[in-house]
Amino acid sequence: MGKQQRSRRRRGRKARVDPIGKKVESVTVLEDLAPIEKSLTSTDPAARASACTAVVGMVVNSGERAAPFCLHLARRGIVKRLIPLMTDRIGHVSVAATRAISKMAMCGGQGICHGLVKSDILTPIISMLTGSWIQDLKPQVRDPLVLHSLELLCCVTEQCDIVGELTKKGTVGKVIEIFLDDQAPWAVRVAAGSVVSVCSDDNEQFGALMLTKEGKVSMEALLKACAREFKEDGRRPVALCCSVVANIASTDSFKNLRPKILPNVLKGLQSVVSGRPVELMPVLAEKIHVRNRKDEQDLLKAQQEAKVDEKRAHDLISWNGHRKVEAWENLVDQWCSEASGVKVGLETLANLLTDSKETNESFSEVLKAVVSGDIPKCLGVLFQDTMSASYALSGLRPTTGVSLGNKVNLLSKAWAVLKQEIPMNQAIRIGRLIRSLSVRVLQCFFNLTLHLDKKDLGDMSGIFSSLGSWMQSMCSTDGEYSKTSSKSLLARQMESSCAVIWQLVKKRCVALPDHALLSQLSRGGKTSETRAYCLMALSSAGLTPSMKNSNIKIGETLLAALDGKGDPSLEVIGAAIEGLIDLYSEDHVFLDEQKVRMELLTPSLCQSLSLLSLSLLSISAS
């Protein structure tokens, strides 16, 4: 129990069963696909490009139904018509087709990605990235073509087990070259870095590749990039460099080189996680508000002028029309890029703080280096920022702390402005990033509390108090937790919060003031891990003298997890049994009450163990 929390990318999972066995209600009338199907095979390049762009619009506008809609398009043959257009002799057609397939891969998930691999999507992608013909194209065609091909490759690599094939064909080496090219456009470099990060994740072949003559040159460049100063390109490229180097260091090929490599990674991570994207939210909201008002005024002025010159009236773009770039888009993209850079840095740090491939001595060195630097301080600041933002996203107010309340009020106003000024899907994008940052910060804290002792952790009462207040608010009648799904970011945020609470209570860093909330979550937690962490925290709290009056209630909660009516998962069952053993074997702590407690609980325990045996048999059979 209490396994370390890693933030690993998905790669090589088995494809899900095609969900289009049932009827799909598309947001687009099915008859509308006929002209698109016809235009994709038209001899007119403009018609082919327009059809590709239309596919992108349909996928984006399908919202939550994007995945089944993409699969419906694939079954209608749209994907098979798009793939040949990726290498169309007309540049803008090729760009539009590659963008359309990339968007379908992003929104369609595993089903689309596995279908693309079966349709040999790698051949045109590899040709675009490694072929000499790409250099003959004009920059305005070459750069977006490479960008969309890298975005597509990243999606496919995350969902399908193709890293070995990419490594053998030399594609990975070319992508690394693009990533390290300072002359390449920023978006292209970031996309290339994302691909390299996915390919290097838990990949021994990649480690061996970096020991070749060409690989050593790339490795030196990556190490330098980890520690370089931020420029106008922000934190994200540095964060991706740190992620790649940390992945390489975890391979057996670099086992003896880890002590020389990891200091560069930690130096880069310290700079990355010092970013505070949440603090920039009010600034972002104000800038977007000002930009939009200015555009409205410009539009109104143009409309008034058009009344005089009616010939120009049809040339005006309405406020709700289709612009190439809206006033807010660049601002939102800049903020999301900054937040994504911090998120990648936190993911890398969380993975470094696990000891799955480290010896005790080398892992101790990593922990020592992390604790001795400013990383814990940066994590503390990010924790307070993301907690404040979590209140603001949920529309709740903290019950304690004047400064926290003021900060939440400021962020709530910014969040209200953003929801009013930008499309809802973009506001959701910002909200998801904030939740993701909170989850990653908590994962880092959990791994630190798991491996460090009470003395090294220092005063954790502030974090404990903030977590308890937030969890209480989320589980209240006004909170969102009861309405969320088990796969939501909020559910993951609560899970990681319970994990941190457990470790803090277990190591006596804090005293649990009340068992009611954890008892509630031990039954109503959205994930089995959440319920298990709460049970372990309760049993740890029960061993402290301050909780002696609550021990019978804690014991009843542990037994209730074994009554056969709740979660039958092994995590929960194991946590409950382990908690009962720990709680009632400490005679030297509760000697006077031991007999009374056992007499009260023994009948329930016997009944629960009988039900447990049946549950274990059921789990074994399944």
Topology readout:
Blueprint: H1 33-40, H2 45-61, H3 66-75, H4 78-85, H5 91-108, H6 110-118, H7 122-130, H8 139-159, H9 163-168, H10 171-179, H11 186-200, H12 204-209, H13 213-226, H14 236-249, H15 258-272, H16 281-308, H17 329-352, H18 360-372, H19 375-394, H20 402-421, H21 424-451, H22 454-457, H23 461-474, H24 489-506, H25 516-524, H26 528-542, H27 551-560, H28 570-584, H29 591-621
Helix pairs in contact: 1-2, 2-5, 3-5, 4-5, 5-8, 7-8, 8-11, 10-11, 11-14, 13-14, 13-15, 14-15, 14-17, 15-18, 16-20, 17-21, 19-20, 19-21, 19-23, 21-24, 23-24, 24-26, 25-26, 26-27, 26-28, 27-28, 27-29
List the total number of helices. Answer: 29
The rough form would be described as: globular
Low-confidence stretches: 9-31, 312-324, 588-592
Rg, Cα atoms, Å:
27 Å
Total count of strands: 0
Secondary structural class: mainly alpha
Amino- and carboxy-terminal Cα gap: 22 Å
| Share of residues in strands | under 5%
- Strand/helix succession: HHHHHHHHHHHHHHHHHHHHHHHHHHHHH
The overall pLDDT, averaged over residues, is: 82
Percentage of residues in helical conformation = 55-70%
Task: Please supply descriptive tags for the structure shown above.
622 residues, mainly alpha, globular
Provide a quick synopsis of the model:
The chain has 622 residues and is an all-alpha fold. Helices cover 69% and strands 0% of the residues. Helix 1 (33-40) packs antiparallel against helix 2, helix 13 (213-226) runs parallel beside helix 15 and helix 26 packs parallel to helix 28.
